[in-house]
Structure formats: structure tokens, C-alpha cells
Serine/threonine-protein kinase Nek9
Amino acid sequence: MASNHQVSKTVQYNGHVFERIRVLGKGSFGTAIVHKRQHDCTLVVLKEIDLIELKRDTDRRAAIQEAQIMSKLSHQNIIKYYNAYTTETKLIIEMEYARLGTLHTYLSHQNRPLEEQ
């Protein structure tokens, strides 16, 4: 009989240990996965970008540039960047987990337009 129990997976990047919780979504450049950071139990998102799948150099540079740009942004309405890690085949971007979901999800659940303040 098959079990519906999902086995957690622990990963480590540069000495930082993360426990895999669930996949948030997949995009053209990678997969966003919720993890629990072991040292402080904070939920974070690790965006894993498979550099092997990026055939063109321009796509690889764009992925790396995304991490560089995120590292320079700091605003209350922008997902926080925490760190970036690389392996032989992947770029991993560690960022804030938005518990309430995306802005798109939030707006789609509103019964009325947002008012300007």
C-alpha cells in the first residue's frame, strides 16, 4: 500500500542546513521550494536554478544577475534576499517566504479594489 507521507530532505549549502518542506512552484528557470533553516527554524524559499538546463550563456548570466540584483534591493514590499549559493550544476537563491502568498493571490481574493492611502 502506498503512503501519502512525504519524506523530508535535508540539504546543506556552505555550512547552512535546510530541511525541505514543500515545492511552491516551478518556472522556466527553476523551482521554488520552502525550506526550514536549521539554525533558527525560519521558513525560507530556496529558488533552485539548474544551470545545466540553461543552454545559452545569456540565460546563465541572467540567472546570476537576478541574485546580484536581489542582493541590492531593500524595501518592505519586496521579498528579502538572504543569500546565494552555487554548486557545480545549480544556483540557489535563499529568500524570504511570504506566508500569505503572492500579491496576485491576495488581490484575487479581494471582493473589492484596493483603495489608495
Observations:
- The chain has two helices and six strands.
